[in-house]
What we know:
Blueprint: E1 3-4, E2 7-8, H1 23-36, H2 43-50, H3 65-83, E3 85-87, E4 101-103, E5 105-109, E6 118-122, H4 123-126, H5 130-151, H6 158-171
Antiparallel strand pairs: 1-2, 3-4, 5-6
Amino acid sequence: MGKRRGKPVxxxxxxxxxxxxxxxxxGDWLDGLMRAHKGLVEPADLVNDAxxxxxxxxxxxxxxxxxxxxxxxLHQAGEMCxxxxxxxxxxxxxxxxxxxxxxxxISIKHPxxxxxxxxxxxxxxxxxxxxxxxxxxxxxxxxxxxxxRKYAYLKELAGVFEALAEAERKVA
Length: 172
């Protein structure tokens, strides 16, 4: 992250959804809230601060309860797809260890719609074809790279990130 006269420079992460305010405004707003709340902010704190119409972040939230309710139900539907796992004893390497759980579905880029449309697919169905395996592998690498970006400051994980780079070279 760059600096502007001693202050951080903010931008939106690649691939993130657009917001009606500049990333610098949002970053400064979040920084101010963090300071005001002694470094710990709950989502409700953000919503409460943005609720007044004069807040620079007001337009970043859906205030129509009907529309927000529909968005919440879509969030709940996605959560349902993310929480169910399949127990896979054939993947177990430690007989005394906990059972191996594999998600029943994963979210992938929708094959027939424009980005960023996503859909859920059964992992068992996806793995039946070489093309499906490629999709799963690309998705896994995307998520692992997101994890790398999130934790790049932890030197203790440098070996993990090197292994990720090696896996990407093998796949390429």
